[in-house]
Structure formats: structure tokens, C-alpha cells
Amino acid sequence: MRTRSTLGTVAVLAGGLAVASLAFAPTAGAVTPGTATATYDCGSWGGGGATLVATQSGTAATVTVTSAVTTPIAVGANQINATLTLAKGGGGTRVFTGKKNPALAAGSSVVIGPLSGTVASGDRLNSYFAGVALKMVIFGVTVNCDAVTSQSPGPFVFS
Predict the structure, then answer these.
(1) pLDDT averaged per 10 residues in sequence order, the chain, 159 residues
(2) What are phi and psi of 154, to 5 degrees?
(3) What element of type H or E holds 20?
(4) Phi, psi of 9 (to 5 degrees)
(5) Which of 56, 63, 90, 117 has the smallest CB count inside 10 Å?
(6) CA distances in angstroms from 118 to 24, 47, 109, 136, 147, listed in the order given
(7) In the beta sheet, which residues pair with residue 63?
(8) What pLDDT score was predicted for residue 79?
(9) DSSP strand E in 10-79: where?
(10) Please, what is the end-to-end C-alpha distance for the chain in angstroms?
(11) pTM of the prediction?
(12) CATH no. of 31-158
């Protein structure tokens, strides 16, 4: 009888531990919409529509940008140092940075990211119009891009 009692106690304790672990586990945040588009002007380098994909895990967030701007030459993986600035609803900005890109063939669309940044619950991030919105440094050449439109379907809202 004692064996059944011990096994029952162990089962109850294990179940309680599992429930407690779930209750105290950090939650992954959700950002909506997960994908947005905006138009950027990169001067003599070109411009056009860009797709931004955002993810969130707590206060850490990433944004990946696929641009209409094309690269005139092949670019190896992780050769583009990029800074994306997004305007925060209510004032201020959030900045996403990184030196992450896939290998890009000559003539292909520039893809950068995921760029890393920090967000707070309730942040509403949209295109930044008060200066350079996207800065890319490729082989020592700086490409500055200005946002021309707000994001569609709307700002990224982080939870």
C-alpha cells in the first residue's frame, strides 16, 4: 500500500510542477501585423516598395527588410551593416541594427535582417520620416534611404 501512496504523491507533485512551470514560463509576444509594406527612396541607389517582417519574443524584436533596391554586384552573406529606424507612436524611435543578410546575386533585391531591437509592450512602430529611415553600409559605401510612405496595413503593434 505504501508503494501506491508514494507513486501517487510523486505523480501529483510532478503534475503540480508542470503546471507551475507553465505559469511562470516567459511568454512570446505577438506583433501585429507581422508583415507590412512601405516605400523608401534611396537616392541614386533607387527606391520603391519594401516588405518588412517583424517578430517578437518578450522585449526582443527583429525586423527583416526585403527591398525593391537591387544590388549592382554580388554581395556575400553578412556583408551589409544596416540600421532601421522606426517611429514610435507618441514620440521617439526604436532602432533595429545588424550585419545580417543572405548572399545576394548581382541584380537581386536587397534583403537585410533579421535586424535586432528592443521594444516595450504597447509600442506602435511605423515608418520614420524625420531623417534617414534605413541606412545600409555595403563595402564601405553608405546608402541612406528615406521613408516615403507609412506602413501598410498599419504600424507594427507589439504586445
Answers:
(1) 42 37 49 97 94 98 94 96 97 98 96 98 97 96 97 97
(2) 165, -175
(3) helix 2-24
(4) -65, -45
(5) 90
(6) 22, 27, 27, 20, 21
(7) 54, 115
(8) 97
(9) 31-32, 35-41, 47-57, 60-70
(10) 51
(11) 0.81
(12) 2.60.40
